[in-house]
Design a protein that fits this description.
Blueprint: H1 2-9, H2 32-41, H3 43-56, H4 59-67, E1 73-78, H5 83-93, H6 98-107, E2 110-115, H7 118-127, H8 130-149, H9 156-166, H10 168-193, H11 199-228, H12 233-246, H13 248-271, H14 273-311
Antiparallel strand pairs: 1-2
Helix pairs in contact: 3-8, 3-14, 4-7, 8-9, 8-10, 8-11, 8-14, 10-11, 11-12, 11-14, 13-14
């Protein structure tokens, strides 16, 4: 009786309480309201993941530095494009009048011209190495983002390199395919945009826009399936295309959110440029990836994971399962 009274007095400090314990809460629903709660709780983690996106794809920094012009050589040349034909006509006509001299003064104004050097071309060439890092970085960061969505503990360096190591071959191949598809579609859009006016170019332009939009949504699912399932690359892309259609509502919300983040970054560049330049290095890439994964993961779980767990008990079967959760 005394022991019971003692326990009741000091039960506030007792770590071994008698009773039912803490009730187990059901997993949260990944809806719009929970998105903002999860984002608020993990804003620091997303900042760290964004640094992995930036510095993991370090070849991009070579191109960024080459674009500053610090590797170029400067020279002086006429600023007007009309100087060369005007000067050539003047040499062959020998008409030196006040009018021609006035035109010569207008079109012959000198300005500083920045010319690319072999070192500049080398740095632009080194930027192409991003096709080898792109897939690996996306694989590791997607693993971290999936852990955030599932409310799992995160060990940044261990989890990042673990995901890359387990999926190294497919990560490199998918990264090369990913970069190639994006570059080809963007090139086609630019090429057809400057040739709009004919029926064929108009059709090709809007078809490429549609394909880029669909592929942008497919990327929400590609790397998530890569780290979650043991699938061939063709199956990953095929399933990603199917999910881009099935998850229509969530996909559109994610695209809208990413568009708003890009628009905010664009506005910051006009209002306060240093903050606009800092945003991509601080949060922009990880925030977009988080939106895409948050929209895609529930659909993948509903269609590919839950039915498998209902039909097969992985702990009791002796056969190798088709589904393998990398966590």
């Amino acid at each position: 009786m005394a022991d019971k009274k003692k326990r009741s007095i000091f039960n506030f400090y007792d770590s071994q309480k008698v009773g039912k314990g803490v009730p187990k809460e059901p997993p949260p629903t990944l809806n719009l309201s929970y998105f903002f709660k999860l984002l608020y709780r993990n804003i620091t983690n997303l900042g760290k993941i964004n640094l992995l996106y930036v510095f993991g794809n370090f070849p991009f920094l070579f191109g960024l530095y080459a674009m500053t012009g610090n590797l170029n050589t400067n020279s002086f040349a006429p600023a007007s494009n009309m100087f060369a034909p005007f000067y050539g006509a003047l040499l062959h006509s020998d008409v030196y009048t006040p009018a021609t001299m006035a035109l010569f003064g207008v079109h012959g104004v000198q300005s500083t011209v920045s010319l690319m050097t072999p070192l500049t071309y080398l740095f632009f060439g080194l930027t192409g190495l991003i096709i080898f890092t792109f897939g690996m970085v996306n694989t590791g960061t997607t693993y971290l983002i999936r852990s955030i969505i599932r409310n799992e503990p995160i060990f940044f360096w261990h989890d990042f390199f673990y995901a890359i190591k387990r999926n190294l071959r497919q990560a490199i191949i998918i990264g090369i395919l990913d970069c190639s598809i994006i570059l080809i579609l963007c090139y086609n859009i630019l090429l057809t945009y400057f040739n709009l006016g004919t029926f064929v170019f108009n059709i090709v332009f809007y078809a490429n826009l549609l394909m880029l939009f669909v592929y942008f949504i497919m990327r929400f699912y590609i790397y998530l399936m890569l780290i979650t399932f043991d699938l061939k690359i063709f199956k990953i892309f095929k399933n990603a295309f199917i999910f881009s259609i099935l998850g229509g509502k969530r996909n559109l919300l994610a695209v809208t959110g990413i568009g708003l983040a890009l628009f905010m970054n664009y506005m910051l560049l006009g209002i306060f440029m240093p903050l606009g330049i800092l945003m991509p290095f601080a949060i922009l890439f990880s925030l977009g990836a988080f939106m895409g994964a948050y929209a895609a993961y529930p659909k993948i779980k509903e269609i590919m994971m839950d039915p498998y767990y209902e039909e097969v008990d992985i702990n009791e079967t002796e056969e190798k399962p088709v589904f393998r959760d990398m966590a």
